[in-house]
Specification:
The protein has about 240 residues and is of the alpha+beta class. It has helices spanning about 5-10, 25-40, 100-105, 110-115, 125-140; strands at about 15-20, 50-55, 60-65, 70-75, 75-85, 90-95, 170, 175, 180, 185-195, 195-205, 210-215. The strands form three sheets. The chain has a five-stranded mixed beta sheet. It starts with a helix and ends in a 20-residue tail after the last strand. Residues about 1-10 and about 225-235 have low confidence and may be disordered.
């Protein structure tokens, strides 16, 4: 465990670990390997293999370690999040050409669509994905996805300026803190973007706001875990 996570645990500050990367080929398998390795690093498992399965509501679960996890993948990018403190959610999106105005007007709150419209034309795609990934991550932290728990209608804070700044701004590598969500003191979220990728992490719990988010690149070559532990992607429960 790093000096940061030792200090965070010793000081009682909750910790969320996030890994972000790119992968060619089977994104689902690579993201499963990534989240199993992340879980093994946070909560060393007992002898035997970790297994990645899913709850009845679709939420991923690691069998063999007391850790909450979340995964996201698509269009060549992937992300994983893990915490021993509370349920987490993560989302990642590759920056690409999309009909921002139509999507914002259809799916986002009116104030959010107007906020995107006020951005410079070359900023709107990232600004839209900035909001979208937060909503997706929050839904996953609640175990509901976008369809439940207010989904895309759930409000998030809108930065007064762009690009945003603050403690809840994530980078591909480094430390941020989960910030509050309007209307729900038990939800918290942070987001960021870099090198053509937009990402967000969220958590649900009484002490989620102010939790440390530590982000790093996905180590896909060593994603099977620590100390010889190798995970099984299939759920055998």
């Amino acid at each position: 465990m790093s000096k940061l996570s030792v200090a965070a645990v010793a000081g009682g500050t909750p910790l969320v670990e996030v890994r972000i990367g790119r992968a060619a080929g089977d994104e689902r398998a690579r993201s499963a390997e990534l989240v199993l390795g992340l879980a093994a690093g946070l909560a060393p498992p007992p002898p035997g293999r970790l297994r990645l399965g899913h709850e009845a509501d679709g939420r991923p679960v690691v069998r063999g370690a007391a850790v909450h996890v979340s995964v996201s993948h698509g269009r060549g990018v992937l992300a994983a999040a893990a915490s021993t403190d509370f349920p987490v959610g993560v989302d990642v999106e590759a920056v690409r050409r999309i009909p921002v105005r139509n999507l914002a007007r259809r799916w986002l709150r009116a104030a959010e669509a107007e906020w995107i419209e006020r951005r410079e034309p070359d900023e709107r795609i990232v600004a839209f994905l900035w909001l979208w990934t937060q909503k997706e991550a929050l839904g996953k932290a609640r175990g509901l996805g976008l369809a439940g728990g207010a989904g895309l209608s759930r409000a998030v804070w809108l930065p007064e300026s762009w690009p945003p700044s603050g403690r809840d701004l994530m980078g591909e590598r480094g430390v941020a803190w989960l910030g509050p969500v309007p209307g729900d003191a038990r939800l918290a979220v942070a987001a960021g973007f870099a090198d053509g990728v937009v990402f967000a992490a969220a958590a649900q719990g009484a002490n989620a706001v102010g939790a440390i988010v530590r982000t790093g690149p996905a180590d896909l070559d060593g994603a099977h875990g620590r100390g010889g532990q190798r995970g099984q992607v299939a759920d055998t429960a």
